[in-house]
Design a protein that fits this description.
Number of strands: 6
Shape: globular
Distance between the termini: 28 Å
Largest sheet: 6 strands, mixed
Order of helices and strands: HHHHHHHEHHHEHHEEEEHH
Oligomer: single chain
Strand content: 5-15%
Structural class: alpha/beta
Radius of gyration: 20 Å
Length: 275
């Protein structure tokens, strides 16, 4: 992991991010805006805008659209962000979803295979990527781990986003006593804010609507819902309202069948004490 990832919540600037930030700054100055004046005009904080201009944040789609409109950027920023979407450390099929995550009003995740990326410890992520077949190079492994940890800033920086996680109990237990202990400690700490809800699907639960695989759902600021389903070597971005409606119904049923958040915490504490 890079030193910047260890010491801050923002990623190491890349040449692409720095070029995009410089372009935003140039268009802002041409339009006669200071950062303090432009930020409320486009609906973002001054700190957020400054981070973009410094190349320390990946620009979400709405930010680009708002800047294009406010700065009359001739479509230049949209063209540049399309190149930026080729992010290192993120699978090509996941990048659109990762962009939408940054502004989601609601973000729901059901997992039956592994700990969701937003809740993984660094040790868990590193072990996961180390076991990939074919093997990743050392550089690729570090890029994957850094990208995963970078995504986790969403939980810290989106206090008004409703995060819901439903995880199968056996996923928590997988990996041995030491790994389980660390995961439980991390999960309890990470999901303590009141906008982050964790529910465990107990081993005692029989059939349920999630058996077809993981489910991810999000709601955008304009109240559109999207889904995402991932397989071995591909991911399916779901925009069809009929399909997202079906996924929402399944997720609602899973919520009703999983342990309550309070009972889930008690189960995790019991598992922690048993290690």
């Amino acid at each position: 992991m890079s030193s910047s990832t260890q010491g801050s919540n923002e990623p190491e600037p890349t040449d692409g991010l720095k070029a995009f930030g410089a372009a935003v700054k140039s268009f802002r100055k041409r339009a006669g805006f200071t950062q303090e004046a432009l930020a409320p005009e486009i609906g973002y904080s001054t700190h957020f805008l400054a981070s973009i201009e410094q190349g320390r944040r990946f620009p979400p789609p709405r930010f680009v659209d708002q800047c294009e409109a406010a700065l009359d950027a001739f479509g230049t920023l949209r063209l540049m962000v399309n190149q930026l979407s080729r992010q290192r450390g993120l699978a090509s099929w996941f990048r659109r979803w990762a962009q939408l995550e940054q502004e989601a009003l609601n973000l729901y995740t059901y997992e039956c295979r592994l700990i969701p990326g937003l809740l993984q410890t660094e040790a868990y992520a590193r072990a996961l990527f180390s076991s990939r077949v074919p093997l990743l190079s050392d550089q690729e492994l570090e890029e994957q781990v850094a990208a995963r940890l970078e995504r986790q800033r969403l939980l810290r920086e989106r206090p008004n986003t409703d995060f819901s996680f439903i995880i199968e109990e056996y996923v928590i237990r997988r990996g041995g006593a030491e790994a389980t202990q660390g995961l439980i400690e991390h999960a309890l700490e990470t999901t303590s804010p009141r906008n982050i809800q964790l529910q465990i699907m107990p081993l005692t639960r029989g059939m349920h609507p999630g058996l077809d695989g993981p489910i991810r759902l999000l709601e955008t600021p304009d109240n559109r819902w999207f889904g995402y389903c991932e397989g071995q070597e591909s991911g399916q971005f779901v925009a069809d309202p009929k399909v997202t409606s079906t996924l929402q119904m399944r997720y609602a049923k899973l919520r009703s069948q999983a342990l309550t958040p309070e009972d889930s915490v008690r189960l995790l504490e019991q598992l922690r004490g048993a290690q």
